[in-house]
Amino acid sequence: MEEKFKAKFGTSFTTELLKNHYRALKKNYNCIKTLLNESGFGWDNEREMVYADHDHVWDDYIKAHPEFNMWRTKSMSGYEDLCIVFGDGGATGKYSRALEEKDVANEKSSTTNAENLNGEGSQSPILAGGGL
């Protein structure tokens, strides 16, 4: 596999060097993902870095997690590509619904499920036909 890689890309990376690079990228990706899952943080596509809504958000987070201090000023090019590589579709919330819409949809779903559990409402075609 190493030889095929060298032939295709013309570089002399070893398997171990590529594994190390992969691990470093994954570690950086996980750090950014951790920050973005925290309230008050977001992703700036232009600067390719994490930002906070207010300086105190960074200050408070870094007090509790000093190892994240470097991410206050460090950029990470290709983060959205890494979301794909590491199995996170890179959800941006672009197509998300408002909280009120979700609550209404959940209520309808809960009501429908409760009706089916009580024997009311629609049944599965398999159950209606007497089983398998």
UniProtKB/TrEMBL annotation:
<feature type="region of interest" description="Disordered">
    <location>
        <begin position="102"/>
        <end position="132"/>
    </location>
</feature>
<dbReference type="Pfam" id="PF12776">
    <property type="entry name" value="Myb_DNA-bind_3"/>
</dbReference>
<protein>
    <recommendedName>
        <fullName>Myb/SANT-like domain-containing protein</fullName>
    </recommendedName>
</protein>
<feature type="domain" description="Myb/SANT-like">
    <location>
        <begin position="2"/>
        <end position="61"/>
    </location>
</feature>
<dbReference type="InterPro" id="IPR024752">
    <property type="entry name" value="Myb/SANT-like_dom"/>
</dbReference>
<feature type="compositionally biased region" description="Polar residues">
    <location>
        <begin position="107"/>
        <end position="125"/>
    </location>
</feature>
